[in-house]
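Predict the 3D structure for this chain.
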Amino acid sequence: MTVVDVKKTAEQKMHKSIDTLKADLAKVRTGRAHVGILDHVHVDYYGTPTQISQVANLTLLDARTIGVQPWEKKMVGVIEKAIRESDLGLNPSTQGDLIRVPTPPLTEERRKEIVKVVKGEGEDAKVAIRNIRRDANEALKKLLKDKACSEDDERRAQDDVQKLTDKFVAEVDKLITEKEKELLTV
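Done. Predicted structure below.
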């Protein structure tokens, strides 16, 4: 492994941390409906836990209502029950073979609770990025110890890893601020 490999690996892992944070933030409910909030709801499809999006067509009927159109009629009740029993606090209703999932407006208190959750997600992402920095720095020290690089190269590489860390932590802060603003907008 070389100094370049260590830096490249650290950057790739930090990108993955940002992508994970974006995915987690997409699941956090705002006042508007979006089909992404049903991503982690699974139904029993012939004995296999399956995402709703794999057994039904998800659409937005209006700003506050998600439409779930199962591909098999017998899945209507199963999907409705899975949504109702999820931790999302949603109450779906069935009209024929279409399941309507209204998203209730958020109260001010609930918005503030969700902001705390979002900030916690942000802190987790920052911790992950800092752990990647630590691992990269340890790898660089090992390269120096094994005489695979000079002290100057190792020091420069550690500075580069720190700059990467600062860049990605700033990206996390930006994402959290955007989500917080989105949540607190009524």
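The first helix runs from residue 3 to 27.
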